[in-house]
Amino acid sequence: MKVLSVASEVYPLIKTGGLADVAGALPAALAAHGVEMRTLLPGYPKVMAALGKMKPVLQVDGGQVLFGTHAGLTLYVLDVPTLFDRDGGPYGDADGQDWDDNATRFAQLSMVAARLARGEAGWQPDVVHAHDWQAALVPVYLRYAGGPPSVLTIHNIAFQGRFTGEVFGELDLPQQAWSVDGVEYYNDVSYLKGGLASANAITTVSPTYAREILTPHFGMGMQDVIAPRAHLVHGIVNGIDTDVWNPEADPTLEQSYTPRTLARRRANRTALEAQFGLEQGGPLFCVISRLTWQKGLDLLADNIDHLVGLGGKLIVLGSGEPALEDAFTQAAARHPGRVATFIGYDEALSHRLQGGSDAILIPSRFEPCGLTQLYGLRYGCVPIVACTGGLADTIVDANGAALRANVATGLLHAPDSGPALGDAIADAVALYQTPAWVKMQRNGMRADVGWQASAGEYAALYRDLTS
After folding, report:
1. Reduced to 3 states, what is the DSSP secondary structure of residue 456?
2. Is the C or the N end of the chain the one with fewer CB within 10 Å?
């Protein structure tokens, strides 16, 4: 089985969030199920610098498609300097403003993917797997111009690739694609909407989120597009790369450890306290996240005094909305020795936080899957999460029955509720340093958070599409 994956970011080459981790880990996981996956991504400066010399396999407008391998990945790279060779991030400039030609940049990615899907570079995939709005036009091009069946994965339905209707003239699509079951969306163009209407199968990154997106509250306006195709929607929970995220052999940690040697984690916690000037004693909570409304971090900002008053400490790693960055920076100034903030992102630090903090807070208002709670499980950093999406699917709540049965792995609370989050923090403080806490840590570390089961579901879906 041959599959072409199309993604706007792929770890370890380029990453802004969980999409990159999924696109980077899935090919190796699928190989065990007899699937050969090649991945197409844009030739951003970081990608080109990391890859070095590659083989040209296809000429395209303004550039070429290059072929090669890196870190176990088999890659096609869309090298069009006018579109991708620029300072800033994959989607916007250094100030966080979207590139004004994103419609063109990612339409080109999808057009090229469709050409590769039809074998123009000498390799013929059986299925094409497109990720999020940046690749969502791939199913549209295959629908109207022919090619293998397609899968579209929604990593976050809030991001839809919506542009003015004038963009349609640049897409090289037939006029019939400008319709209610095509890319037209209230006189605009929506790349995600077109993909949802065209793909042969739709997946989301957790079973709960697959149900949630059929409702107005979570569907973000797309629920009526998806509803007639609900029979094509599959919820497949994400996994993580358990080689990259492995507390037994993580070079970023002060001290490695296993479920049987949890006492060794103390060295990692002590190193964090020293790095951030925190006092010793009391549970150490962390946040590793984009600082946005979606992530519910305004609710946490309102609970910081409560957390500190209970004897807890907090380290925040992330960036995002200026008001939230300011709120956490001010909290650190208000509670020196108890609260610390790192505005930005540091991959190694994210590992150290998971390896040394006692708990990770994820109070998201909605969360398609989430990966940080899976990293937390793997590292014995107890997840405290909102009961929504993939968070609800991957964490066993520490209610009385679960604690008595010794199966709890974290704490769940009602989403979009500051008081519920406050209660969960209080419950965590009460459980901290009890045998139940250690049992939760060990349960989490022994949980199956890898890709084996989920990769098997994807492989089965690919085969269904080609049978």
Report:
1. helix
2. C
Digit-coded pLDDT (tens) for 161-194: 999 999 999 999 999 999 999 999 999 999 999 9
Q: 435-446 and 418-431 helices cross at what angle (nearest 10)?
A: 110
Confidence of residue 17 (pLDDT cuts 50, 70, 90): confident
Tens digits of residue pLDDT in 341-388: 999 989 999 999 999 999 999 999 999 999 999 999 999 999 999 999
Counting Cα atoms < 13 Å in the Cβ hemisphere of 104 gives 12
Residue 397 in contact with residue 429, Cβ under 8 Å?
A: no
For residue 207, whether the previous peptide bond is cis, meaning omega lies within 30 degrees of 0, is no
What is residue 158's predicted lDDT score, i.e. its pLDDT?
95
Q: Is 15 annotated as a binding residue?
A: yes
94 pLDDT above the threshold of 90: no
Task: Give the whole-angstrom CA distance, residue 12 versus residue 16.
Answer: 11
The mean per-residue pLDDT over the stretch 100-112 comes to: 98
Q: In the chain, what are the domains?
A: 2-239+451-466 (3.40.50.2000), 259-446 (3.40.50.2000)
Q: What is the DSSP string of 185-214?
A: ETTEEEHHHHHHHH-SEEEESSHHHHHHTT
pTM: 0.91
Residues 6+ apart with CB under 8 A from 8: 19, 41, 42, 90, 91, 106, 109, 131, 132, 134, 135
For 335, the 3-state DSSP assignment is: coil
What is the per-residue pLDDT across 407-444, written as a single tens digit (0 to 9) for each?
A: 999 999 999 999 999 999 999 999 999 999 999 999 99
Largest CA distance in the chain: 66
Q: What angle do CA 399, 400, 403 make, to 5 degrees?
A: 85
Q: Is 43 within 8 Å of 61 (Cβ atoms)? A: no
Let me know if 251 is exposed, middle or buried by CB neighbors in 10 A (0-12, 13-18, 19+). Answer: exposed
Number of Cβ atoms within 10 Å of the Cβ of 209:
28
Q: How far is CA 107 from the centre of its chain?
A: 22
Instruction: Tell me the percentage of the chain whose pLDDT exceeds 90.
Output: 98
